[in-house]
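Task 17 of the worksheet. Students: predict the tertiary structure of the chain below and write it out as structure tokens. Keep your answer in the requested format; marks are given for formatting as well as content.
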Amino acid sequence: MRATSKARTPRRLAAGAVVAATVGWSLTAVPGGTAAAEQADSGPELVFEQSGPIDGVRPGDSVAVPFAVKNKGDAPATRVVLYLRGSQGLAYDKRYSNCVYEDAPAQDEGPAQVDAECDIEQTLEPGVVYEPAEPIGLDVLDRALYERLNLNILAGVGTFPEGTQHGGGADPVLRLVARTAPEAPGTVHGGELATDITAENTADFALTGSKVKGERGRTVDAKVTFANKGPAWARNDVYGPIGVFDVGIPRGTTVTKVPEFCEPAGAATYRCTTPYNYADEDSERAYVFGLRIDKVVANATGAVAFVKGDHHWGTLPFDRNRTNNTAEITVNASDGGAAAGGASGGASGGTDGGAGSSGSTNGTGATGSTSGAGTQLGELAETGSGDTLLAGGAALALLAAGGAAVAVRRRTS
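Model answer:
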């Protein structure tokens, strides 16, 4: 069962914030950090053969992820602990008796993950390459899309003072065996191993606007809602918000209240983002703007539309439903109906946005143009290919290092 997330205070992620490492989350600190630093000087030094990503899998599949670790040091490695950090769209298909497992809830700006720590009660000799007796088995869940399995291994760690059977799993022991085949020339090693697993799935990102009415001089609340309707959760490939959209300010109005995670992006436009670099499925967040009506303009509208954020994918390549990627804020509509993509509302659009809604900050902002008709924003920004990452269907993916095969087992029911 998935752990319940603890309450968190979001930290603003600027739309332009990009870190060098293209990861959606970092491997959490593990015990023995000092021991890891000492390994580089003398004694054992455990490193992974770096391998490539896995794609062509679908929700319901089981994936076998092999790995290889080498002791590059000058002494045997003892008291070895293997750390596994899986993203929340994955589940371990076995629970080994020498491993302790935890469903870690979302914390700070990081999503939930599935963790394991395994006591490898073996001596790893210098110069020898080891592989697991069987690859790590992972189940691809219905919510899976851009997933990752992080591995770290350290020697000289006292995590399991009670020995191998300290773990709570019921399956046999996870063991490493010496590989007989020599390493391929030019093999790249690293202290950690991150295997990206891309599932053929979609995440339906949606925007809704609102319709408000008021007389000249009155201030109204106009609500815009972002939602991920699933079925997959989605993470960014950099440490920047996964969802970015522009909100146009209707003609004849002035912004008096700006919601959190929104900033001016022009004379009559605000750019808003999701608070984190990921969005869980079936989640939503409300953004409430305070608008002072300076001039009553019938059917004054401001367009709301997704734009490309800081990543390499284009605009929402995982979203196959484009019909809800735009919306409108309408002030003093003459037809009495709901705004496109939005729900009807009175002068006070409301500030409760359901799960994930946030408070607003007061201030005077952009003023809507008083000339011309129609929306303040153009069409949705040019999108990236929706098929590039999601197409595939290969039942067998090859890892880059040594041509190691990754087995994929389909769910038959």
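Marker's comment: The two ends are 21 Å apart (CA to CA). The mean pLDDT is 77.
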